[in-house]
Sequence to fold (202 residues):
Amino acid sequence: MDRRSFLSLGLGLGLVEMTTTSQVQAAQIPSQPQSRVAQSGFLPNVPLVTQNGEHVNFYDDMVRNKTILLNFFLITCKEGRCPVAMANLRKVQELLGDRMGKDVFFLSITLQPELDGPKALKDYADNLGALPGWTFLTGKAGDVETLRRGLGYVDVDPERDRDLSNHIGMARYGDDRLNRWGAVSLRSSASNIASTFQWLSK
Fold:
């Protein structure tokens, strides 16, 4: 999926159309209170596992009342998109300084959960130089798929959608408390990516 197609999916309520209401409700673990965006199905509360082996629920534990940036990636990326994107995020966390892990959090979710368990994610995070506040996530394939679709990382062409090599270097960022969400290219400069958090606070 290219950037134009991704952005055309819209944010918030519009993303629910990418999956049925029953699918979202079945995948979510009840939690209250939820932000308006979470109630729309944009942030499915699926169970996941961190690189440290901690079991978490996506919305309750990783998103609720937080400012986050999230992306999907492949450890064995062959297209060159992920190395560039992740290297940029490494620079962004340095630019954010002590905000990382305090009021800004990064969430990187593997697109191959059946291959990338916690240990593989831990090794990847360590080699990348990820600092506290940057969490790498895996889980059951069905739960990751529900999350991918809920967040709008879907190609309208089913064949292209099944091809993981078509994954894009875009990230969602937002503030759950403010109900503000946007998208940014992870192939843009680190300073541009970091500037998105200034917009959220205005």
Summary: Residues 1-27 have pLDDT under 50 and may be disordered. The longest strand covers residues 67-73. The CA atoms of residues 169 and 186 lie 5 Å apart. The domain at 3-200 is CATH 3.40.30.10 (Glutaredoxin).
